[in-house]
Design goal:
4-stranded parallel sheet, 42% helix, 11% strand
Length: 187
Amino acid sequence: MIWSRPEAQVLFVCTANICRSPLAEALLRHRLGDLGLEKRVRVRSAGTQAARRGCRPDPRVQQLAAGFGISLAGIRARALTPALLHNSDFVVVMAREHLDHINRVFARDAWSREGTTDGDVSEKVQLLGSFLPRRHGSAVDIPDPYYGDQQGFYTVHQMIDSALSGFLHQLDAFLENSETKMRGLAP
């Protein structure tokens, strides 16, 4: 069996890693599969406060995903760690509070204590809402549907799905650049 490292690694981050980020992970994996890119990109998710580590996504997310034919196989809640952040090319957060958490908890000095040398991780962090079409205004948070009804989960699904369309353009450019470098056509 031949194993190769993916060309890009994407990490979605929300609070508990049971609603928004697992849904984004599953939706992106599904889209990558449709595009034949599933082997080139590794997609994961984590939570800033993942108290239910190892748990499957919220049952309402499971129901929603099943209704759209989206697989949540293998997705389990996990906590955000320095290793997950450092090993990711893209860290896509659901809300500004997650961006603030990363900047506060995983500041540059904390990284140096971990023995890393690749600099400030904040350069990799993006708000998923920044990829929404302009009709939503400037970068918006993807709201947490946990305490709401099923309609809230559908709204969040639509927002994530729409934002992923924009994110895929950035990911495609990254993969194209990666492919060029692998062929030795770029420095």
